[in-house]
Design brief:
Order of helices and strands of chain C: EHEEHEHEEH
Radius of gyration of chain C: 16 Å
Helix content of chain B: 25-40%
Low-confidence stretches of chain B: none
Structural class of chain B: alpha/beta
Number of helices of chain B: 12
Oligomer: heterotrimer
Low-confidence stretches of chain C: none
Strand order of the largest sheet of chain C: 2-3-1-4-6-5
Strand content of chain C: 35-45%
Strand order of the largest sheet of chain B: 4-3-5-6-7-8
Number of strands of chain B: 21
Radius of gyration of chain B: 23 Å
CATH topology of the largest domain in chain B: Rossmann fold
Shape of chain B: globular
Chains: A alpha/beta (about 425), B alpha/beta (about 425), C alpha+beta (about 140)
Number of domains of chain B: 2
Shape of chain C: globular
Largest sheet of chain B: 6 strands, mixed
Chain lengths: ~425, ~425, ~140
C-alpha cells in the first residue's frame, strides 16, 4: 500500500534529479535568511556552486545553537503573512527554537505522515487514537493532520487519564494507537489490571523516544499490535521524517523531501553506507524554514540493501546521541535545562541531584534538594511549599512531573570540577 | 469591515428564515427516515415531518437533553456510520460515562467555517498571530479555535494550556496579536506578566481576546479592556453542538448565532414554552446541518435572552446576550464543566471517605479554585499524618481523573458536613464575575 | 511583659530514616544540653524534630556545627491542672479568642503537666490566658 506510489518508489536517477532540483530551490529559499547569506559569504560559496548532490559538502553545517541564536524569527524565510503555524521546541537552556510553517509546509508534512501511516497498513476505515501531547509539541498535531488527510476517524485523546484512554479504545473500537513506547507498555499493564483486552487494536505507532527490539517484542505481545518505529524532529516539521515499513528492518526516510548524510560527528566528514555516525539533514521542500545540513545529533547509518517494499534507502534505528540530550517521557531534555531551572530557584542553591529512573515502564524524575540554612524556618508547611515549588519549576520549564525529596545538609555528593548533577539510571531499554 | 461570507452573514432576514425552514424540514425528514432514535422520539409526541410547515413548527418537536447522549453511549444515536466519522470529541458527563460527539468531514468543515466567520467578525484575519490557549485534545476549545484561525489564514500558535510564563514570553517575542482563552486565564496572564515586569498593554502586540468557555460579565470586559489595552470578545458554544462556534462582532452587543448552523429558541425551563425575544429563559438549539450528531431542540441549560433585531454591523443573524446562569447545578471551573453528581459518583468508589461532600468554589487571585471537603471514613482513620495525606492525594487524583481539572481536597471530621439532600447546600460559590 | 512568657523552641530538619533522632539526641548529650520536651512531626519523606532545651542557643550552635538545619520558633508553655477539664479550660480560652493552635505537645513537669503550644498570635494568646487566670511558664524556667 502506498499513499504516493510514484514518489515513494522513485528510481535512483529520477530521484537524484528531483533532489538536485529541490536542493537548489532550498538553497535559494535559504538566501531569504540573513544567517545563511552571511554563512555562504564567509564560506565563499553560493547556491550556483551546487551542481550535484555531492556538492552539498561544500556548504557549512547548521547546529541547534544557530537556530536558537536566531530566536525568534531569524530562520523564517517567508513574510509573516505566509506563516500559518508556529511550533516551538525547548532549547538547551532558556529560549526555545521557533519553527514556522506555511500552508504548503503543513500540506507537505501531512502528506509525509499519510505516507507513513499507509505504509504501516492504515487506511480510511481505521479508528486512530492519538495519545501524545497536542499543542506546541509537534507529535500531536502532526499525526492528527496526517490521519485526517487519509480520512480515518481521529480521537485526539492527547496524554493522561489512562483509564479513560483504555475505555475509549474499547468503546470506540480503536484500531491504531500512536504514543511513546514506554507509555504503551504502561497502558498495556493498566489494561491488564482493568481486564480490558484491547482486542481491536492492531497497529501501534511509537516514537518520540528511542526503543529497542526487546521492547518491540513486549509491545507486540502485550498489546497485540504490529509495532512501527517513527522518527522525526521539530526542525524538520516534526514526526514523519522516517518510518518503518512492514519489513521492520530500518526506517524509510523520505528522500524527495530530505537530503540525508551521515557524518563523523568529530571530523564532520561523510561516512559510507553501513558506517554509523550523526544524521545530517537538508530539507528539500521546507518553505518557511529551510535549513542547510542540520546536525540532528542522532546516531544512525544508511543501510545498503534495497527494501522488499520497493521504497528507497533506509536508515537504521537510532542508537544514541552525539550530545547529552535525554528523552524523558517523549520530551527532549538537556541536563543543562534542568540545572538552569533549579539554579534559579531561591532555596535550592547548588545542592541538588536529579535522578531519572524507569518505574513501571514510565520515566520518573526525582529531585533531591539539600535543605539550605536560610530556607529552614522550622515549619513543615514551608518545607512542603519548597517541594511544590521545585516540582512546579520543572513542570513549567520542561513539562515533566517530578517527585521532590528533601535531604539533610551534607548528604549529597560534592563535585570537584564539573558537577554531574543529573544522573540517568534507566539503563538499557 | 471584513466579512468572511457576506452572502450568508448579510442575508436579508426573510431569506434567512426561509433558509432555516428549508434546512429544518430536510433535517427532520432525514432523521425520521434514517434514525430509529429520532423517529421514535417524534412518534412519542405524535409529530410527523409533514407537520412541520412553518419554521415555528419546530416547537412541535421533542426536546433533547444531555442525558440522551449519555444514555446512548458511545454512538448509537449517531446518524452517520463509523466509516463516515473523522473525529470524536469527548467531554465528561454528569456521572460515569462521558459524552461523545462524532464529526463527519462536513461537520468539521461547518464548524470551522462558523469560527472563521466569527473570528473575522472580531476583526481578525491574515496577518494576525493567534495564540490558542484553550486545551487541545478531547476538549473542543483548542482544536476548534485552531482550525478556525488556520482557515482565515492567521498564524496559529498552539500553546494549549499551562506554563503561563512561557505563554507570556511567546506572546511578546512572537508578536502575538490575539489570544483565545478563558477570560479568567487572561486576567491571570495579565497579573503574571506584571510580576515579570511586562505590561501586556505596552510591551506586547496583543490587540484582541477571544474569551469564553465560562460565563463573564460586562464589568469584567471593561476591566480586561482597560487594563490590558485590548478588545475582548465573547465566544460561545458547547461540544454537543460541535464546540465553540459563535462570537460577538465589533459592536460587542450579543453573540451572533449563525442561523444556517443553528436554530435558536429561548424557552421557559419549567413549562418548555417558547419565549419571545428579550425574555429570559433557557437556551435551546437545533443544529441544522450536522451529519453525525444533529441535535434537535437541545436544552443547553444556559440562561440568556435573544435579540432578533438586525445588528448594527449589518449581520442579519439573531444574537444571544450574556449567559446569566444555569438551569441546573452545573459549575464551570476554569472553563471545564463540572457537575456535583460527578463528584458524588467518584466518591462512592473510594471507601476511605464518606459519601457526603461539600464544594467550595472561589477565585484565587483571578483563577477559579475548587475545594472539595470530604469526611474520612472511620475505618480509614490513621494517626499517621502520611496515611491521611495519601488519602487526600488519592481523592485528589480520582477527582482529577473524573473531572479533568485539578481540585484541592480537604479531609474533615466525620459528621461535620451538611446532610441536606438539596443541591444548593452542597456548593458554595464565592466567585463574583 | 508578654515577652517573658515566649519560649524559644528549636526545630530541626530531619530525614525520615533510622538513626536520625539518635544523631540529634547524641549531639545534644555530648554538648550537655538537657531536653525538657520534644515532639516529631512527620511529612512526605522528612520530619521536623521540635524540642525545648535548657540552652537553645547552645543547642542551635551544636546541631548546626554537626550539619543540621535548625531554627527557632516561639511557643508558650501552659501549666495544666492535673484533673479532668484541665485541657478544656485552656482550649476554651484560646478558642473563644479566635486564636488557632497550630500544633501542641505536652510534658510532665516537676509540679504540673505542661502543654507546649504553637499558636498563630503568640502575644494575644499570652494576654488571654493570663487575663483568664491561666498559669504560664516563664522562659527563664528552662535556663
Amino acid at each position: 500500500m502506498y499513499w504516493n506510489k510514484k514518489i515513494e518508489t522513485l528510481k535512483s536517477g529520477d530521484l537524484e534529479r528531483l533532489q538536485t532540483k529541490r536542493l537548489k530551490w532550498s538553497l535559494n529559499q535559504a538566501l531569504n535568511i540573513e544567517f545563511y547569506r552571511n554563512l555562504f559569504r564567509e564560506a565563499g560559496v553560493s547556491p550556483d556552486d551546487i551542481a550535484t548532490l555531492d556538492d552539498v559538502t561544500k556548504l557549512p553545517f547548521t547546529h541547534k545553537a544557530d537556530l536558537r541564536g536566531g530566536y525568534p524569527f531569524g530562520f523564517c524565510a517567508v513574510p509573516m503573512r505566509e506563516v500559518v503555524r508556529i511550533h516551538t521546541t525547548s532549547g538547551t537552556t532558556g529560549k526555545p527554537t521557533v519553527v514556522c510553517y506555511t500552508r504548503q509546509d503543513l500540506g507537505n508534512w501531512s502528506e509525509l505522515i499519510a505516507r507513513n501511516m499507509v505504509m504501516a497498513g492504515i487506511g480510511e476505515d481505521d479508528i486512530f487514537q492519538n495519545s501524545v501531547n497536542y499543542g506546541l509539541f509537534t507529535g500531536g498535531l502532526g499525526f492528527h493532520y496526517g490521519a485526517e488527510e487519509i480520512g480515518m476517524t481521529v480521537i485526539p485523546s492527547a496524554t493522561g487519564n489512562t483509564k479513560r484512554q483504555i475505555e475509549m479504545i474499547e468503546d470506540f473500537g480503536v484500531t491504531v494507537i500512536h504514543c511513546t513506547p514506554s507509555y504503551a507498555l504502561y497502558l498495556a499493564e493498566a489494561a491488564e489490571e482493568m481486564g480490558a483486552s484491547l482486542d481491536t487494536l492492531k497497529t501501534g505507532l511509537f516514537g518520540a523516544e528511542p526503543w529497542s527490539e526487546n521492547m518491540r517484542r513486549e509491545l507486540e505481545s502485550r498489546l497485540g499490535v504490529r509495532a512501527f518505529d517513527s522518527y522525526g524532529l521539530s526542525e524538520m516539521y516534526g514526526p514523519g521524517v522516517a518510518f518503518e515499513c512492514p519489513e521492520h528492518d530500518g526506517l524509510h526516510i523520505w528522500h524527495d523531501s530530505y537530503l540525508v548524510e551521515i557524518i563523523d560527528p568529530k571530523t564532520g566528514e561523510r561516512l559510507e553506507c553501513g558506517e554509523r555516525g550523526e544524521l545530517v539533514i537538508t530539507p528539500l521542500v521546507k518553505e518557511a524554514m529551510p535549513i542547510i545540513r542540520y546536525r540532528t545529533g542522532d546516531i544512525t547509518m544508511l543501510m545498503e540493501d534495497g527494501c522488499a517494499c520497493g521504497r528507497g534507502q533506509k536508515i537504521a534505528r537510532i542508537t544514541g546521541r552525539t550530545d547529552d540530550m535525554m528523552v524523558i517521557r517523549g520530551i527532549n531534555v538537556f541536563p543543562s535545562q534542568i540545572e538552569h531551572a533549579l539554579l534559579s530557584l531561591p532555596g535550592v542553591g547548588e545542592q541538588f541531584m536529579v535522578y531519572i529512573d524507569r518505574i513501571r515502564h514510565l520515566d520518573e524524575m526525582m529531585i533531591v534538594v539539600e535543605i539550605d540554612r536560610d530556607v529552614f524556618s522550622g515549619e513543615l508547611q514551608d518545607l512542603a511549599r519548597l517541594q511544590s515549588e521545585v516540582a512546579g519549576a520543572i513542570r513549567d520549564a520542561l513539562g515533566i512531573r517530578t517527585s521532590v525529596k528533601l535531604a539533610e545538609p551534607g548528604t549529597l555528593p560534592r563535585f570537584e570540577g564539573k558537577a554531574r548533577r543529573v544522573v540517568d539510571r534507566r539503563g538499557d531499554l | 469591515m471584513q466579512v468572511w461570507d457576506p452572502r450568508i452573514e448579510m442575508m436579508p432576514r426573510d431569506e434567512l428564515l426561509r433558509l432555516q425552514y428549508r434546512l429544518l424540514k430536510t433535517l427532520v425528514y432525514r432523521l425520521y427516515s434514517f434514525s430509529e432514535f429520532y423517529r421514535r422520539r417524534m412518534k412519542d409526541v405524535g409529530v410527523h415531518p409533514d407537520d412541520i410547515r412553518v419554521l415555528e413548527d419546530v416547537q412541535k418537536l421533542p426536546f433533547m437533553y444531555k442525558h440522551d447522549l449519555r444514555d446512548n453511549y458511545p454512538d448509537t444515536i449517531f446518524t452517520a456510520s463509523r466509516e463516515e466519522l473523522v473525529r470524536y470529541h469527548v467531554s465528561s458527563g454528569t456521572t460515569g460515562k462521558p459524552t461523545v460527539v462524532g464529526y463527519t468531514p462536513n461537520d468539521l468543515k461547518n464548524w470551522t467555517e462558523s469560527i472563521a466567520r466569527s473570528l473575522t467578525a472580531c476583526g481578525l484575519g491574515r496577518g494576525d498571530v493567534i495564540q490558542v490557549s484553550y486545551g487541545y485534545g478531547l476538549f473542543t476549545g483548542g482544536l476548534g479555535l485552531h482550525y478556525g484561525a488556520e482557515r482565515i489564514g492567521a498564524t496559529v500558535l498552539p500553546t494549549s494550556v499551562g506554563n503561563t510564563e512561557r505563554q507570556i514570553e511567546l506572546m511578546q517575542d512572537l508578536h502575538v496579536t490575539a489570544i483565545a482563552c478563558t477570560p479568567s486565564y487572561l486576567l491571570h496572564i495579565g497579573e503574571v506578566a506584571e510580576k515579570m515586569g511586562i505590561s501586556i498593554r505596552d510591551d506586547t502586540d496583543l490587540q484582541r481576546g477571544i474569551l469564553g468557555a465560562e460565563p463573564w460579565s460586562d464589568e469584567m470586559r471593561k476591566r480586561i479592556q482597560d487594563w490590558l489595552g485590548i478588545r475582548a470578545y465573547d465566544i460561545y458554544g458547547t461540544s454537543e453542538i460541535s464546540g465553540p462556534m459563535f462570537t460577538e462582532c465589533a459592536e460587542q452587543n450579543g453573540i451572533h448565532i449563525w442561523g444556517d448552523i443553528a436554530l435558536t429558541e429561548i424557552i421557559d425551563p419549567d413549562t418548555g414554552e417558547s419565549l419571545a425575544p428579550g425574555e429570559k429563559g433557557e437556551l435551546t438549539m437545533t443544529v441544522l446541518q450536522k451529519e453525525a450528531l444533529p441535535m434537535i431542540r437541545y436544552r443547553i441549560g444556559d440562561i440568556t435572552t435573544v435579540d432578533d433585531d438586525v445588528c448594527a454591523c449589518g449581520r442579519s443573524h439573531p444574537r444571544i446576550m450574556r449567559i446569566m446562569g444555569r438551569v441546573d447545578d452545573m459549575l464551570i471551573i476554569r472553563g471545564i464543566n463540572v457537575f456535583p453528581s460527578q463528584i458524588e459518583h467518584a466518591l462512592l468508589e473510594i471507601p476511605e471517605v464518606g459519601r457526603h461532600f461539600q464544594i467550595i468554589v472561589d477565585r484565587k487571585g483571578v483563577l477559579d479554585a475548587m475545594l472539595v471537603r470530604v469526611e474520612v471514613a472511620a475505618e480509614a482513620f490513621s494517626d499517621k499524618i502520611s496515611d491521611l495525606m495519601s488519602i487526600r492525594k488519592l481523592v485528589e487524583h480520582r477527582l482529577k481523573t473524573v473531572l479533568n481539572i485539578g481540585v484541592d481536597v480537604e479531609l474533615v471530621e466525620p459528621g461535620t458536613l451538611p446532610r441536606f439532600e438539596g443541591k444548593s447546600k452542597k456548593v458554595i460559590d464565592r466567585r463574583e464575575l | 511583659m508578654e515577652d517573658a512568657y515566649i519560649i524559644k523552641q528549636i526545630s530541626v530538619f530531619s530525614e525520615n530514616r533510622p538513626g536520625r533522632l539518635a544523631a540529634i539526641a547524641g549531639a545534644l548529650k555530648d554538648g550537655d544540653v538537657n531536653i525538657f520536651a520534644f515532639s516529631i512531626a512527620e511529612a512526605d519523606g522528612f520530619g521536623v524534630v521540635r524540642a525545648l532545651v535548657d540552652a537553645p542557643e547552645k543547642a542551635h550552635r551544636i546541631l548546626t556545627d554537626q550539619g543540621f538545619r535548625v531554627s527557632y520558633t516561639e511557643v508558650i508553655g501552659v501549666k495544666m491542672r492535673d484533673e479532668p477539664g484541665g485541657l478544656y479550660e485552656i482550649a476554651t480560652v484560646l478558642g473563644d479568642a479566635g486564636i488557632n493552635i497550630e500544633y501542641a505537645y505536652a510534658y510532665s513537669g516537676r509540679d504540673a503537666a505542661v502543654l507546649i503550644l504553637r499558636v498563630d498570635h503568640v502575644r494575644d494568646a499570652i494576654k488571654e490566658i493570663l487575663s483568664r487566670g491561666g498559669d504560664l511558664l516563664e522562659a527563664s524556667a528552662f535556663t
